[in-house]
Amino acid sequence: MQNEVENIGIFVVSFLSLVFSQSNKNKRGKKMEEKQIKVWPLVGMLMAVVLTAISVFLPIATSGSRTYESLIVDSGGETGRTVLIGAIIIGILPIAALITKKTLLSKLAGILGILGGLGLAGIQAVLYYGLVHFSISPAAGMYLGSVGAVLGFVMGIASLRSKKS
Question: What is the pTM of this model?
Fold first, then answer.
């Protein structure tokens, strides 16, 4: 687990240093024209990341008066750690796009938001099928994770749309 966290940290630092080291000049040294990015889809993707991260710690199911553990505690926490790591990785690009105002990063954040939303929706679907199979009701963690998946998917699509000036 510690090696995974160290590898992710090295990746994040390397990626951010690459993004911030690129200047906004072309080969002749002239300043390139600033393109506008849409801010609201990137902020929406960050909200989806926060919702997803919170959902990992909430109970995933209830049966009568009993609540089942969260994704981070249940089954050794592998699913919860995977979702958290994915959310952190997906959250890096919108932050970098908001800081640098680069359209390429905005488009990449959109693609990653779509893929992350689909992946989280798949995880939620598998969990929901397992719960329904055993006649157990979903709880707040399932609902919040599903909202995060849909929000990430929709904001990813919105981020890919071109801005009309």
Answer: 0.75
